[in-house]
Amino acid sequence: MSSVPSPESNQILPLAVICGASATGLGVGRDLGRRGVSVVFADFESFRPGFVSRYVSKVEPGITAKSEEDLVEKLVALGSRQPVKPVLFQTTDQMVLLIAQHREQLDQHFHIANSTRPGIADVVTDKKSFYELCVKHGVVAPRTSFPETLEQALTVKSEFDFPVIIKPIHGHLWRERLKGRKLLTAASPDEYEQIVKKFADDIRELMVQELIPGPESNLWIGGLYLRQRDGEPGAIFTGRKLRQHPPGFGSASLADASPNEDVVRLSVKFLREIGYRGVCGTEFKFDERDSQYKMVEVNPRQTLWFALIDASGIPLNYYAYCDLGGLPLPKAGSLRDGTKWILFEKDLITSIGYILKGKLGLFRWLGSYRNIRVHAVMSMSDRRPMFSLLRTYAVRVWSRFILRS
After folding, report:
1. Distance between CA atoms of 277 and 300, rounded to whole angstroms?
2. Do 92 and 20 meet the contact criterion of CB atoms below 8 Å apart?
3. Looking at the DSSP assignment, which residues form a beta bridge with residue 292?
4. Total-model pTM
5. Pick from 22, 201, 347, 383: most CB atoms within 10 A?
6. What is the pLDDT of residue 390?
7. 171-210 pLDDT per residue, tens
């Protein structure tokens, strides 16, 4: 069988199926695999590091799909042959929206979080709808504008101080177009005009947002799981981004666990009010100008830094698995303040850039690596994903720069 007996009983544990085999999914698989849960990854690219983890099922092969339709068909086939319903996780926006779209069909074969459904998943992944939710529920967010024409985009610049952020409303659809970046920045009105004119035909797909000043350590992150039966928080984590890649505006490359009751309060209040139940990652920027935490985004899934949560003493992924699978819930744990997580290869690039610009001293950089307890990919007990990651980078470089040259 593809599920394994619980060490505490003869009960068959549900298979954990993780849609997305990148470093994010790998972190989820490791958290569950260490607790005896059998894991299967599903993705569109076979070279993703999760597929070669030591924690993958020895019976059920991973799913590599040629298209979204192919993925759904293979998930249905996998779920239908299990002795108990597997638990389904999604670790990318594309996967969240895909599962939500086919929720009715997949619900017959998987335990799926209530948050992965139309009306929640598509709203919080759409940055315009998300901003409207913030306004509706009185959540403070960075000042944002959604121009619908080039003329409006050129006019709205007078409402902002520079620099400003320009980013797509549906970020996952623009990754290739922006060459892996999440957003663009304009340091001056002239640079802003150049950018919006370049994307004039797609201006309705872009948003303009104020850039909140302050260091990256003012970016606070929350990892939460809200129970299916009552929407109450079962496991809660808070921490900070210490560095990002690309610098200043990318994904976390170094983060630590740090308690913050304001982030917990604001996150739980917002999620309760929109009827959210499931795994969630929130992000706030503390604005030193008015001493307010401003909500930047809500991810209806695990995010890249989620491996930090388990390492800091909060078994959030396992708690989610047990709640979704109808198993006894583990203790929520207590936060080990100062625990750090790193995506080393990306953080090294960011750090070198800061050092060369005089923004980071050598000894301060080395000191920032104290208390690292978990890496995004590197692990001495699970080595093969490290080599798979090198292949992933090679494929990206080949497709992005060599084939297009």
Report:
1. 9
2. yes
3. 287
4. 0.91
5. 347
6. 77
7. 777 767 776 677 888 999 999 999 999 999 989 999 999 9
